[in-house]
Here is the input.
Amino acid sequence: MLDVNPKSVLALILGGGRGTRLSPLTAIRAKPAVPLAAKYRLIDIPISNCINSQINRVFVLTQFLSNSLHRHIRQTYRFDHFSGGFVELLAAQQTMAGGTDWYEGTADAVRKNLVHLDQRGIDYILILSGDQLYRMDYMTMLRTHIENQADVTIAAIPVDRKEAHALGIMRCDSSGRVTGFLEKPQTEEEIEMVKMDPAWIDSQGIESQGR
Here is the structure.
């Protein structure tokens, strides 16, 4: 197994937009701060995955109604001084170089925080959503990324055709290389453009269930 140092990885968790689809839960809080299973918040899922993957350098980008999210993270995540670990919040802010203060999308949120990502000893940047529920060992994905000498590696799951219109859908070739991407395809023609063979998905160790 390829030996990868988790300390060479920095995680960047995106706090998300206004969370209108989760209204009224997001009326007074950021989407990642929505309560989950009594004492947890949505943001705890990606942070927990990071910590369980031995990745303990984490930035969380925040923007809308972020007070409760800030409070939860400050009270929950603390590392000893010797580990070098941290979970830090980066709020959207206006800078002389950046211009407007709000993020204009996912890529823009990353771009406006590049200065924080250029750190000594960091070779890999792990970009995560702050509002998705899943369990994953990120180091397994990173090893695959390195072994394939990829520029970028994307984690994805198969979805039903009826769900595709609300998601970003990508198409891969037989080697797993991304060959196409459509954001929220609406027509049958668009869905057919990115539809994958269920047999290939199954061959990757992922249950397609015929999707």
Q: What stands out?
A: The beta strands are 9-14, 35-36, 40-41, 57-62, 86-91, 124-129, 168-172, 178-183. The chain has two domains: 6-147, 161-203.
